[in-house]
Amino acid sequence: MSPAIMRKTLTDYGLIWLGALVLLTGFVVLFIFATHSVPIEHGKEWLELPWVRAFLKAMVGADMADGFSPTGMTSFAFSHPFTWVVLVAFMLTLTSGVLVGEIDRGTMDILAGLPVSRTSIYTSVSTVILLLGLPLVWAMWSGVAFGRRMVGDDEIAMDRMRAVAWHLYVTYVYVACFAMAVSAVSKRRGNAIAFAFAAIFSSFVLNFLCALWPAARKVEWLSFLHFYTPLPIARTGLIKHDHMLTLLVGAAAWWLIGLVVFRRRDIHAS
Amino acid sequence: MSNHNPNAACIDIRGLYKTYGPVHALEGVDLAIAPGQIHGFLGPNGAGKTTTLRILMGLMRATAGHASIFGLDVWFNSTRIRRDVGYLPGDARFYGWMRGTAFLAFCDRTRGGTHGQEIARLIECFGLDARRRIRDYSAGMKQKLGLIQALMHRPRLLILDEPTTALDPLVQETLYDELRNAVGRGQTVLFSSHMLSEVERLCDRVAIIRKGRIIEDSTVGDLRTRAAQGDAVRKVEFTLRNGALAHVQPPPALTGAAAGEGRWIGQWCGPVDGLLPWLARMDVTDVMIGAPSLEDLFREYYKDDGAGVTDRSAT
Questions:
Q1: Residue B193 and residue B42: Cα distance in Å, rounded?
Q2: In this structure, how many other beta carbons lie within 10 angstroms of the beta carbon of residue A224?
Q3: How many Cα atoms are found within 13 Å in the side-chain-facing hemisphere of B235?
C-alpha cells in the first residue's frame, strides 16, 4: 500500500465524508426524536396497514408488528431509505472517483507514471474507502446514543444496536467492494456510476418484490439486502454470522475481480 | 536498480504490435535507444507515438512484441522501472483542487520524499507559482508543473510526450537547457514532438513513426546530409552593392523577393554549387546561405502515401 495515495484519497474526499457523517448522525438523532414524539399507538395503527407492514418487513428483515419495541423501531433508521441514499451516494462518489474517475479525468496518466504499482493504488484506495465507512456507521450508533439521552428513553438497547451497526458496516463493505469492481472495469465514470447504481437499485427492487410477491423469493439471495436484517438482530442482539460471512465472501470476490481487472487493463489516453 | 546491464540499450523495442479491435495502432515497431542521448520521436497525428510511449510506461499492454527499459520488461516490471523514469504524458491532467506545492509534495512522497531541493530549484528555474491552485493555472503553467514532476528525481530516463506544448519560447529554452544538462549527467531523454526546429537543435537521433511503423531512425547529422542531397531547400539572403536589384535576373532555382536596400530574401532549391557561381558574378556585399532544411524531408515522411520513403526499420 502507498501511504501517499491513502493520504491523497483522504484529503480529496475528506469533505464529502464529513458531510455524510453529519447527515447520518443528524438523521438518526432526528429519527429518535420523531419516533419518540409519535404515540406508540399511532405507530401500531400504521403497522396494521398491509402494504406498510410488507414494505417495512422488506427493509428491516422481519415483521415489525410482531413484538413492537423502541429498539426494533430504532433499527429502522439503519435501513431507512435516507441512510441508504447517503451511504450509496458516498460510496459511488468515492469508488468511481478513485479508479475510473482518474482514468476519465486523465490524472491516472500522472498517477500511473509514479513508482506505485496498480495493486498498491487499488489496495490503498480500497483501504481508505473501507476505513471511512467505520466512522459513518459508528456515528449513526452515536446518534442513537445521543438521541436516546436527549429524549430520556432508556428502552433502546445500545448493545443490540451495536450488533446492528456491525451488520450495517459489513453490508457497506460488500457494496463498496462491488462498486470498486465496477469502477475497475469501467471506461467512463458516468457509466460506472450508472451501472453500480442500477445494480444496487435492482437489489432494493428485488427485496421489495420478494415481500409482495412470494414467487420472487426463489431469487431473493441475489439481493444483498436479503443478508442484511437489522430488526431480528435488534430484537435478539445476536449477530447473524452466516449472513455476515456471505456478505464478506461476496465482498472479497468482487474486490478480487476488481483487482485482477485493474492490474491487467489498458489505461487509454482520456 | 543495481542489477541492470550497463551496456544494454536504455530502451529496446522489438516487433511491437498494438491493436484496438480492428484498429492497428502499432505494426511491428523496432527501436533501440542508447543511454546518454536525446532521442526525438516524430510522426504525424495518429502515427502511434503516444501508444508507444504508453506501452513503455506500462499504461498499456502490447498485443505482441517486446519492449524493455534498462533490460526489464516494461509490463511485468513497470513499477520498478518507473522509479528511474520521469514521465510527462501528452496533454497532462492534474488534480485541479490541489495547489502546485501539494501536488509536487505528493509526487515526491511516492518517490521517497527526498527531492525537496531539486523541486525548489526547478520551480525557480521554470518560474512557476506553485502556491496557486492548479485549476487556476494556464496551460503553460500546467505543462511546467508536469515537467517539474518528471524531472524532480533526476531519473535515468525521461519520457516526455510533446513537452514544449503551450510553453513560451523562453521557457522552451529553459527546458532545452535542463534536458542538455540531464544528458550531461548521463540521463537519457526520449521525447515526442511536432516541432522540427527543436528536434534539429536538441536531438542526437530521431526516430520517425508513420502508420505504426518506424520508417526512419538516424542521427540528425545523417538526416541533414540526406536533406542536402537532391532538391534540398536552403534559406538564402544576400545584399547587392548600390541596391541594383532591378537589373538582376535570378536563376530559376532561386525564389524570393527584394526586401529593400539591395537585400534579397528567398530560398534556393537544389545543390548549392549551382548558386555560388551566380553569386560570384554579382556585386555582393553580404551573403547568408542557410543549412538545408529538414522540413521537406519530414514532409515526405509525413505524406499519407509515403511515396519515396523506405522503411528503414526493415534494414
A1: 6
A2: 22
A3: 7
Q: Distance (Å, rounded) from C-alpha A136 to C-alpha A86?
A: 10
How are beta strands B38-42 and B64-69 bridged, if at all? Answer: unpaired
Give helix A81-98 / helix A118-151 axis angle, nearest 10°: 160
Nearest to B160 by CA among B189, B140, B188, B181: B189
Q: Give B246's contacts (C-beta < 8 A, 6+ positions apart).
A: none
Q: What region, left, alpha or beta, does residue B21 occupy, with left being phi > 0 and alpha being psi -120 to 50 degrees?
A: left
CA gyration radius, chain A: 20
Give, in degrees to the nearest 5, the angle at Cα A224 between A221 and A228.
105
Neighbours of A249 (CB within 10 A): 11
For residue B207, list its beta bridge partners: B41, B217
Place of cell 479525468: A105
Phi-psi region of A235 (alpha: psi -120 to 50; beta: other; left: phi over 0): alpha
Give exposure, A82-98, as e/b (b: 16+ Cβ within 10 Å). Answer: ebbebbbbbbbbbbbbb
Distance CA B229, CA B271 (A): 7
DSSP B186: T
What would the grid cell of residue B295 be?
Answer: 522540413
Q: Structure pTM? A: 0.82
ipTM of the complex: 0.78
From chain B, which residues contact A within 8 Å (Cβ)? 50, 54, 57-61, 78-80, 82-83, 85, 87, 89-95, 97, 106-107, 109-111, 146, 149-150
- pLDDT tens for residues A167-214? 999 999 999 999 999 999 998 999 999 999 999 999 888 888 887 788
| Residue-by-residue DSSP string for B68-122 | EETTEETTTTHHHHHTTEEEE-TT----TTSBHHHHHHHHHHHTTS--HHHHHHH
Identify the residue among A109, A121, A122, A267 best suited for mutation to test binding to B, counting B beta carbons within 10 A and taking the highest: A109
- The residues facing B165 across adjacent strands are none
Pairing of strands B188-193, B38-42: parallel
User: Does the pLDDT of residue A88 top 90, yes or no?
Assistant: yes
Q: Do B25 and B19 form a contact (C-beta atoms < 8 A)?
A: yes
Q: Phi-psi region for residue B212, left (φ > 0), alpha (ψ -120 to 50) or beta?
A: left
Angstrom distance (rounded) from CA B13 to CA A97: 34
B312: which 3 cell numbers? 528503414
Report the length, in residues, of chain A: 270
Which amino acid would we find at residue B84?
A: D
Chain-chain contact of B82 with A113 (C-beta, under 8 angstroms)? yes
Q: Do B109 and A4 touch (CB under 8 A)?
A: yes
Cβ B159 vs Cβ B85: under 8 Å? yes
